[in-house]
Write a structure and sequence with these properties.
Order of helices and strands: EEHEHEHEHEEHEHEHEHEHEHEEHHHHHH
CATH topology of the largest domain: Rossmann fold
CATH class of the largest domain: Alpha Beta
Distance between the termini: 33 Å
Shape: globular
CATH architecture of the largest domain: 3-Layer(aba) Sandwich
Helix content: 40-55%
Strand content: 15-25%
Number of domains: 2
Length: about 425
């Protein structure tokens, strides 16, 4: 495990642990909030995560950084040991873990073994039922927050913020925008659609494939180009579908750009953006009309009529599994053919909403209040920690069985409203 900088013990020391440093909304939020919190004189932030594409960005923050080579699934005995040793070595007062895997390892190796408080943030669209109930948890949507409170969890609401000092309509120059559009093979008069995100099987792949097919279909009637910014295990599959769309159009309408360390210019150079979660918010921050992508055929334009729904459930949704390509094409067609007044209305709506509700500075202040609340909570004794470990082992055994036998998860959701 590599590290930089040595510790100083004069402030509240927070170890921020994203689940990895690959490019993704949760990881970027973790870095942005860590930087914002570190500017407060009462806090000092230490970063710890598996090495990845965002490691250089993490180094540029100037924060104390510890990179791990570990990528095991939780619980990981090696990662438990790293957590345990790092907390002692750095004099950490609080561990803030992002997503469930580092939360599990931090709970076992830190909260239950050392008595050091652990806070979890879950920005996924659901959280596993086995997430320890005595670990305070930040959730990114109002629906998940209310559900967690109803389950008796110590839950906080903090919607994913955007650094609006960076993400704004004039973020790049016209010359830079022209350069990015040329990279995306968008010519004068083309309508450039951009989607930014990790190309993963879970949550995003089905929607991405439907989007690629929809753009291919629309290309017969409209001068559209689609830029896919991101990488991941599903890239090969996405490239195959992109090649089919290009053959159908008899020209290159889909451009697979791979991961970009700074995706901001690709948002800013687009005419409209497709996205979910943090990516959706960044698109609105730069003043782009937005089509929100979900699962199972969910597609919805972000505007005044849909904003209340998205503010409640998050910038995401679940459809009925039917006609995803057709629905996506229909919503894109509405954006492509919108009047100038309608397009301007969508741009202003999105920018104003993000500035008002999702500011990074406001979120950082709220996060520091949560830190203080968690630090004031009673710590867990080693005896109770041992009981918790045994209970967690049983719950995770059930989860692993459900992964191997999907019908068990389906039955659980039908009976309880939540899958294992």
């Amino acid at each position: 495990m590599s590290h930089s900088k040595s510790k100083t013990k004069s402030k509240t020391r927070v170890l921020v642990a994203p689940h990895n440093f690959e490019i993704g909304g949760s990881q970027i939020n973790a870095l942005e909030l860590a930087c914002a919190v570190s500017r407060n004189p009462d806090f000092e932030v230490v970063l710890y995560a598996p090495d990845g594409e965002l490691s250089d960005r993490a180094r540029r923050t100037g924060l104390e950084l510890h990179l791990s080579s570990l990528r095991e699934a939780a619980p990981s005995l090696l990662r438990l040991r790293e957590f345990y040793q790092l907390v002692g070595q750095c004099g950490v007062d609080l561990v803030h873990a992002y997503e469930w895997a580092p939360t599990i390892d931090a709970a076992i190796g830190v909260a239950w073994a050392r008595g050091v408080p652990v806070l979890s943030t879950i920005l996924s669209m659901d959280y596993p039922y086995f997430l320890p109930r005595d670990v305070p948890t930040i959730l990114g949507t109002r629906e998940m927050w209310r559900a967690a409170q109803n389950e008796g969890r110590k839950a906080f609401l903090l919607e994913p913020p955007v650094d609006t000092s960076l993400f704004h309509p004039d973020a790049i120059s016209p010359a830079e925008a022209a350069k990015i559009r040329a990279e995306c093979m968008a010519e004068d008069g083309d309508i450039l659609i951009t989607v930014v995100g990790r190309l993963a099987q879970i949550l995003k792949l089905d929607g991405l494939l439907a989007l690629i097919q929809a753009v291919g279909n629309l290309s017969r009637d409209y001068p559209v180009k689609l830029a896919v910014v991101g990488d991941g295990p599903a890239r090969g599959h996405a490239e195959e579908v992109a090649a089919q769309a290009n053959r159908y159009a008899n020209r290159q309408v889909v451009c697979m750009l791979g991961a970009k360390h700074d995706p901001l210019p690709y948002y800013a150079a687009a005419d409209l953006v497709v996205g979910m979660g943090s990516s959706a918010l960044r698109a609105m921050a730069v003043g782009k009309p937005l089509l929100v992508q979900g699962e199972k055929g969910f597609w919805r334009i972000a505007d005044e009529s849909s904003s209340q729904m998205f503010r409640s459930q998050g910038w995401y949704g679940i459809g009925d599994g039917e006609q995803s390509v057709e629905r996506c094409a229909s919503q894109l067609r509405e954006l492509i053919t919108a009047s100038r007044a309608r397009s301007d209305e969508l741009r202003s709506f999105g920018r104003d909403l993000v500035q008002r509700e999702y500011s990074l500075d406001v979120a950082a202040e709220h996060l520091m209040t949560i830190y203080r609340d968690v630090l004031s909570m009673p710590t867990i004794s080693k005896g109770q920690g041992s009981v918790n470990i045994m209970k967690l082992a049983g719950e995770m055994a059930k989860y692993n069985t459900a992964i191997k036998m999907p019908w068990i998860r389906t039955a659980s959701r039908h009976l309880t409203g939540r899958s294992l």
